[in-house]
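[Discussion] Sanity-checking designs against the backbone

I'm trying to build intuition for which residues belong where. Below is a structure token string of 98 positions. I'd appreciate it if someone posts a full sequence so I can compare it with mine line by line.
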């Protein structure tokens, strides 16, 4: 699986994130800022990466993500994602071959 696919998925998914939409990634700024995932299809790349609906991406490679531009600038080099799932932080690690 190539990281390029993840980047393309994130770009497509977040292109309307600031609007009320059915996008699977929505900015959610509250107690723990991050990007809330919703309506993740069982066949989507995000699901294959171990992400689930209601997960909130808070960090990429240990760096706190506060804005969509930060998410997009870090996306090409993902080695780990820290998410909030069911109120608990969890780190997902990846090893993509280029």
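Best answer:
Here's mine. Compare freely.
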């Amino acid at each position: 699986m190539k990281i390029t696919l993840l980047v393309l998925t994130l770009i497509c998914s977040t292109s309307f994130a600031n609007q009320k939409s059915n996008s699977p990634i929505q900015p959610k700024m509250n107690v723990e800022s991050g990007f809330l995932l919703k309506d993740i299809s069982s066949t989507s790349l995000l699901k294959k990466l171990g992400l689930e609906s209601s997960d909130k991406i808070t960090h990429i490679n240990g760096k706190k993500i506060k804005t969509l531009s930060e998410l997009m600038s870090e996306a090409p080099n993902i080695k780990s994602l820290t998410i909030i799932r069911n109120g608990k932080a969890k780190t997902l690690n990846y090893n993509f071959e280029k």
